[in-house]
Every structure is written in structure tokens, then in C-alpha cells.
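Researcher: Sequence recovery benchmark, item below. Answer with residues only.
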């Protein structure tokens, strides 16, 4: 009785896992991720936590053992999630080139107290809600007004992606996505379909000075940002996700998930709540800067 039930459930799991995913397209899962070992509120209204690697391995180099997590609702419509090495500073887009709030300075001693076991918690702004799971650590971002999950890094056994990875020269993080979300962005490159993301297409950000006549190639600029348009029961909404990291990266969009694989730097996510595409662009350019208007005379003979 028992063995056959076990075989049946193993068989069921296999069917569920391989349904629609060919084994060759399943990327290797690296490691067991991190666990949250402390979390506290900061004086400026953010939250600060520490993550400890669960099981070290040497795939793509040793794991960074302790990470600092900083989360803050910086404005009504902007949520920032910053994850870096807790023990030494790492390369980030320089703060003098792109002026923005600095995460708290790294602590000299890191409390590993687990007096209050941490379970699912929420940290809410006016429209975006950050929530997390402690072990293995994952986070999600939800929209308050319609309950939609916008981003969710949690990985199940069947998912074609693993837990968060943080090495000196290899960072990986993924999110689940609803299959009917429409994504646009991840420039600059020459995808034949334009700026809409298509599942299975390669998106590499590794700035190169080549002619835009080459298809499926990356160009001069690196814009690791996408806008996600959704329709929930006839109600449209748009939001945007920026991963502020200037290192080379591959972004794998699979239709129901998206994985970033980066060769350095930190995870520095900014979520812009929209809800219209124009509001998203406004919120995004409030952070990264707006394009300068071109003087009319500079168009010379091309104005008409
Ligand atoms: C994130 O995904 C996990 C695993 O599928 C699920 O259990 C959890 O409810 C999701 N979280 C949110 C906020 O949607």
C-alpha cells in the first residue's frame, strides 16, 4: 500500500515538474540560497536585515557568506530593495554620478541572534508591499490596490530557476511572473520584435559599440529596467522594475519567470508602482534623471 502510493506521488511530481519544460532547457540550480538571521527597523523608516548562506559551494567561486538586506519605501510610489556583501563594500553605480539615497553603512558586528524566529512578514508603503520568507530567504512585492504579486523570488522544486546566488563574480535572482503579463524594456539591444520581451529570446546587457544592423545584439547603453503591463479583470496597470547594476548580465525571460545572471556588483532593485505607463516613466526618470530637451535651433536644416 505505502510503496505504491509513494511511487504514484513521485510519478505525479515528475509529471508536474516536466510538464512543458524540456529537461535540456532547465538551468542548473546553484546552491540552497540564504537564510534571514536578523531583521530590524532603521531610524529612517527602512528595514535592515542580514542573510547567511545556507550551504557553501564553489560553483562560479565561493559564496559571499553574509549579506546585508536594506528595504525602504523611498517615496509613495518607489520601493527599493538593496542586497550586498555585509562585510565589505562592493562596486555599485557611483553615488556621485547618480545621486540617490545611500543604504546604511556596513556594520562592524552582525547580530546572529535568532531569539525571535522570523516567519512571513509584510512591510507596506502606500501602494507597494514588501514581504519576505526567512528560510530560504525570498521576497515578494505586491500591489495594495488589487492584491497582485508583481515580483516573487521564491523558488519551488519544479521552477526552472533556483534560489538567490551571491558570489563575487556571479549573482543570480529570479522572479515568477503571470503568463499574461506583457514586458517591455531591457535595452539597449536589437531584438527583431522591438522593445517587447519575448519568452526565450536572449537579452544580454554587455555594452558594446557595434552597428545596430546586427540582430539580437547588445548596443552602447545598459538599461536593466522593464515595464510590466497587466490586465486584472479588465483593470489595466503598469509598474516597472529597475535592477541598478552596471555589470554585464544575461536576463532570461521564460514567459512565467525571469532570471537575472550578473557578473558582479550588487542587487539594487527599484520598483515603481505606476499605475499608468506615463506615471511609471515619470517615477523612473525622477530617480535616474530626465532627458535634456534639445534646442530647436540644433535641429538645423532638419526642422520643418
Ligand atoms: C511567492 O511564491 C511562493 C511559491 O510559489 C508562494 O508560496 C507565495 O505565496 C508567493 N508570494 C506572493 C506574495 O505571491
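Model:
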Amino acid at each position: 500500500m505505502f510503496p505504491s502510493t509513494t511511487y504514484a506521488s513521485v510519478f505525479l511530481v515528475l509529471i508536474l515538474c516536466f510538464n512543458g519544460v524540456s529537461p535540456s532547457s532547465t538551468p542548473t540550480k546553484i546552491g540552497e540560497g540564504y537564510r534571514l538571521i536578523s531583521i530590524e527597523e532603521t531610524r529612517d523608516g527602512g528595514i535592515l536585515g542580514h542573510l547567511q548562506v545556507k550551504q557553501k559551494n564553489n560553483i562560479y567561486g565561493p559564496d559571499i557568506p553574509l549579506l546585508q538586506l536594506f528595504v525602504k519605501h523611498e517615496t509613495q510610489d518607489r520601493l527599493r530593495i538593496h542586497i550586498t556583501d555585509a562585510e565589505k563594500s562592493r562596486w555599485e553605480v557611483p553615488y556621485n554620478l547618480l545621486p540617490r539615497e545611500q543604504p546604511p553603512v556596513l556594520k562592524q558586528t552582525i547580530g546572529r541572534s535568532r531569539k525571535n524566529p522570523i516567519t512571513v512578514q509584510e512591510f507596506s508603503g502606500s501602494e507597494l508591499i514588501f514581504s519576505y520568507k526567512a528560510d530560504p530567504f525570498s521576497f515578494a512585492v505586491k500591489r495594495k490596490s488589487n492584491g497582485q504579486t508583481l515580483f516573487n523570488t521564491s523558488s519551488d522544486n519544479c521552477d526552472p530557476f533556483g534560489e538567490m546566488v551571491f558570489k563575487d563574480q556571479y549573482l543570480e535572482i529570479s522572479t515568477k511572473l503571470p503568463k499574461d503579463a506583457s514586458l517591455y524594456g531591457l535595452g539597449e539591444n536589437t531584438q527583431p520584435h522591438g522593445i517587447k520581451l519575448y519568452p526565450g529570446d536572449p537579452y544580454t546587457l554587455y555594452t558594446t559599440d557595434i552597428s545596430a544592423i546586427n540582430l539580437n545584439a547588445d548596443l552602447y547603453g545598459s538599461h536593466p529596467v522593464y515595464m510590466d503591463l497587466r490586465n486584472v479583470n479588465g483593470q489595466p496597470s503598469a509598474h516597472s522594475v529597475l535592477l541598478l547594476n552596471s555589470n554585464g548580465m544575461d536576463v532570461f525571460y521564460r514567459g512565467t519567470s525571469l532570471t537575472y545572471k550578473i557578473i558582479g556588483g550588487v542587487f539594487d532593485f527599484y520598483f515603481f508602482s505606476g499605475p499608468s505607463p506615463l506615471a511609471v516613466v515619470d517615477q523612473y526618470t525622477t530617480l535616474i534623471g530626465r532627458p535634456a530637451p534639445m534646442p530647436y535651433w540644433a535641429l538645423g536644416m532638419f526642422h520643418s
